Amino acid sequence: MYVAVKGGERAIDNAHKLLADARRGDRDVPELSLAQIDNQLALAVDRVMCEGSLYDRELAALAIKQARGDLIEAIFLLRAYRTTLPRFGASEPLETSAMDIRRRVSATFKDLPGGQVLGPTFDYTHRLLDHTLAEQSEVEEPATAPADGARFKSVAELLAGGGLIEGNDPPADEVGDLTREPLSFPANRDLRLQNLARGDEGFLLALGYSTQRGFGRTHPFAGEIRYGEVEVEFFAEDAGFAVPLGSISVTECQMVNQFTGNGTQAPRFTRGYGLVFGQSERKAMAMALVDRALRARELGEETGAPAQDEEFVLSHSDNVQATGFVEHLKLPHYVDFQSELGLLRKLQAEFDARDAASETPMQDAAE
Amino acid sequence: MSAPVYNFAYLDEQTKRMIRRAILKAIAIPGYQVPFASREMPMPYGWGTGGVQVTASILGPDDKLKVIDQGSDDTTNAVSIRKFFVKTAGVETTTKTNEATVIQTRHRIPEQALTEDQVLVYQVPIPEPLRFLEPRETETRRMHALSEYGLMHVKLYEDIARHGHIATTYAYPVEVGGRYVMDPSPIPKFDNPKLSDSAALQLFGAGREKRIYAIPPHTHVKSLDFEDHPFEPYRHDAQCELCGAMDSYLDEVITDDAGTRMFVCSDTDFCEDRRAAGHHGPQGGPVAAIEKEGAHG
Lengths: 367, 297
Prior knowledge:
The structure holds two protein chains of two kinds. In chain A, 41% of the residues lie in helices and 13% in strands. Chain A contains twelve helices and four strands, in the order αααααβαααβββαααα. Chain A has helices at residues 8-24, 34-40, 42-52, 57-66, 71-83, 155-161, 189-198, 201-212, 281-294, 310-316, 319-327, 334-366, and strands spanning 100-105, 220-236, 241-257, 270-277. Chain A has a four-stranded antiparallel beta sheet. In chain A, helix 2 crosses helix 4 (57-66) and helix 4 packs across helix 5. In chain B, helix 1 (13-28) crosses helix 2 (49-58). Chain B is globular and about 55 Å long. In chain B, the strands form three sheets. Chain B has a seven-stranded mixed beta sheet. A three-stranded antiparallel beta sheet of chain B has the order 7-6-10. Chain B has helices at 13-28, 49-58, 76-89, 137-145, 150-163, 192-195, 268-276, and strands at residues 34-35, 64-69, 92-93, 102-106, 119-123, 174-176, 180-182, 201-206, 211-215, 221-223, 250-254, 261-265. Chain B contains seven helices and twelve strands. The chains are: A alpha+beta, B alpha/beta. At the A-B interface, helix 1, helix 4, helix 5, helix 11 and helix 12 of A face helix 3 and strand 11 of B.
């Protein structure tokens, strides 16, 4: 006899126990510490903080550990935690020209004030597996030079001086926050940038790549990419001035894009902008490409490519939303499936009946 | 890093107020999708975050909560959501439809008629009934504003032209209070008649899509159809093997490798009630013989 499926609660509890066991793995292997994840998987921590929209290395490391290294799951954990935090307001705009630079490269000028600073980068490494890392390895102390405290103007600022690139007016209103107000279309650039900064690295990478291959070409040059520490300031109503909250590390990408001009505007360079927590040039560059592509309408350019389609890009960039909805297909759907089955059987029966009925006249015709 | 302390029913009071405002607006404009600032919940999008936020915002300490998925209290996601509210709100839970004050559901409306003391909260994946006809939100909002629903009727007409029937079997579109066309969430169309003139308040929450909408009590809800092709709810032509019901929505269960099938009520509470009252189908003994799980929570 059929017994209704019971015991869902016990099954869930046991599944969670099994998950905890699988997470820990072989008990003879030392357990990962959060400091190890933070230090040695620092770029994973950066990504989780960025797409999780929460700058806290320790919590991000915890999320990565809890998620068994599944970064989208870790991002989700951080987002869910972020929901519960009180919100005080928006910081003052980051002064990235005052960044303590660890890396800074420009693809548009051979040399520029402040110079090119390679910093810690995979660029120019040969992608050969380094078997010495398989064991405990001795690492040399890096070469250092005294910081000169100089502030490096960005390439965009240098170009702006000559009127060669568009200006960047600060938004007239308070900046939006799509975690507090539902996104509506058309969205302003502040909300678009917020959406892209939280967006999935892989999704933005593919969209940015598509613009390079002709689906909404933006003629980009990597004007400048810089990575380092910037101070975050918050305007305190009580004190009447901006107080520093601390510093965070960010990667900023300023794309310089061609613009042919139109009836009212002279030809000049335009900008695509990318800013992410931590060190992730891939994400910052892809974000800048997509940001510029999304400005097609504003600049009176031809639209129609996926990366230029605001609703398409902004509605599908969030990997927490995407993974939830894709994976919800594994939840039971048998009520709806039964409905479909019923209709299908009916349609098939009608099809067969029509088939049978049409046999006789066919034979008649053949005679 | 200290352990987070959560507010009653997880959401902070400010968020609840924001959601309640959206709910009030939704009730004032039946069937209209009200945008709201959906929060990230500790369960995945697509797994009921909209319903959970609505429930969290209307739940009080004296409420008695029932959570069903596919009509059953024991499907894993229903269990998980019920546990969430036991943990964060400490409210009493029940599997009895008539005892619950708030019922959160996915894909079904309970068989038993609801009363004016009850609220039914639906989990909604895609709130926009026109979405699969027009993917752009900017367009669909305009179509709703102008009551421009011709596209939907053309779709239903094309179904009839091609198949001889309207080929929508669940999430069957309805018109609420003579104005807005609404997606009733993926309930089988068998349940559609229960949407209309219900004594209970019906609230719909779509978390990922950030929309809330409502059917106030005693509101006329019409399933879209044509005069010569009237709306027909579908039901398997069978009786429940356990309780013998001839009028409930049935799940088809495959019982062996040879494809032998049987039908049982999808609404487990309804089925148990009937068996307790002495009804039984071909395979169902009295309810005492069925292994009963202890009270939840």
